[in-house]
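Lab channel / #folding
Pinned by the channel admin:
"Please post every new chain as: sequence first, then the C-alpha cells as a reply. Keep commentary short and put observations after the output so the thread stays searchable."

First post following the new format, from NK:
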Amino acid sequence: MVAILLMGVASGLPFNLTLSTLQAWLADAKIDIKTIGWFGLVGLPYTFKWLWAPLLDRYLPPLLGRRRGWIVIMQALLALDIALMATSDPGTMIFRLEIFAVVLVFLSASQDIVIDAYRVDLVPPQERGLASAVTSFGYRGAAMFASSVVILIASFVGWHLAYGTVAVVMALMIWATLWAPEPQMPVRLPSTLAQAVVDPFVDFLRHPHAWGLLLLVPLYKVGDAFALTLYSAFMIKGVGFSLAELSIAGKANMTISTLIGTAIGGWLYLRWGLFRSLLTLGIAQSVTLLLFLWLAYAGKKVWLLVLVTSVDTLAGGMGQAAFTAFLMCLCTPSYSATQYALLSALASVARVGMQPVAGYVVDRLGWANFFLITFFTCLPGLAVLLLLRNPIRAIDAREKASAAASP
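Reply from TO:
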C-alpha cells in the first residue's frame, strides 16, 4: 500500500501543471479567457493514451521489469520537460510553453498508463477498495500540492522557480519507483503487437453490458470535470482573488478536504459496495457544484471560498475513490495497461475537451450560468448508473467471490 501511495503521488504530481496551475500562470500574465480556454486542448493526449498503451503492454524495457521500467523512463523525461517549462514565459513564448505543455501531458499520460496497470496487477481483489482510496489520496494530494504550493511559490518568487521546484520533486520520485516491488503475476503476455492491440478490446467487449459501462465511464464525472476546467481562471478573473489567497484559502484547504474525502470514500465503498457508493457519492458531487453558483453571485469572500472548495473537493474525493475501484474491477490483468488506459481516457474526455467550450460559455453567459449548466450535465451519468444497477451489482458480487477465494 505504501508503494501504491507513492505511485499515486508520482502520477498526480504533473497533472495540474497543465490545468489549474497553468491557468493561474496565464491569468496572472493577463492572457484573455478564450485563449486560456483553448489551452485546455493541450490535455488531449490524456484522452488518446489508449492508442499507445498496447506498446507498453507488449514490450519490456531493458531494466526493472514490465511496469517499473517504463515508469522510471517516463519520470526522468517528465522532470526534464517540467524544467524546460520553467524556462518559458507566456507573455513572450506562449507557443513554446504550449509545446512543452503538450509533451508534458503525453509523458504524464504514459506514466499513468503504466502506474494504473501496476496497481491492477499488484493489488488482489479483496484490497481494491483500500487501494483505490490510497491511490486517490496520493494522486489528489500530489495534484493539489503541485497546484497550491506552486501558486504560493509563484506569488513570492515567480513562476519559473515554482515550476522548477516541481521538476526537482518529480526527479526524486524515481527513487520511490526503484524501491517499489514489481508485480509478480502469472499473466499471459501478448506475443505480438497485433495481439496487444486487439485482444484487450475483445476481452472487454465480452462483457454483456460492455457498451453501457463504456458510456457510464465518461458521464459519471462529466459535471464535476466541466465545472473545474476553469477553476483558477474563475477565482482570479471571475471573482478577483489574489494568487496568495487562491493558494492558501482555496488550494491548501482543497488538498486537506480531498485527502479526507478519498479516505471516507474508500471506507464507504468497503461498507456499501460498488453500486450504492457510486450512486450516493455521485449525487453528492453533483449537488455541491451549486456552491460555485453561490460564490459567483456573492463575490470575493474568503470564508466562502474556503467553504465552497472544501465541500466540493470533499465530495469529489469521495466519488473518485469509488470510481477508481470501479475502473479497477473492469480490467483483466493480462491487458491492464490498455484496458485501464481506455477507461481512464474516456473519463478524461470532459476535463480536456470541454475547456474550450467552457471558455465560450463563460464569455457569452457569465460564470453563474456556467455553473448552473454544469450541475445539469451531471444528471445523464446518474441516469445511466441507475439503468446499469444490476450489472454493476453483478460485478461487485464477482469481485467479492474472487476475494473470498483468494488465499
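NK: The radius of gyration is 20 Å.
TO: also worth noting, The domain at 2-181+192-405 is CATH 1.20.1250.20 (Growth Hormone; Chain: A;).
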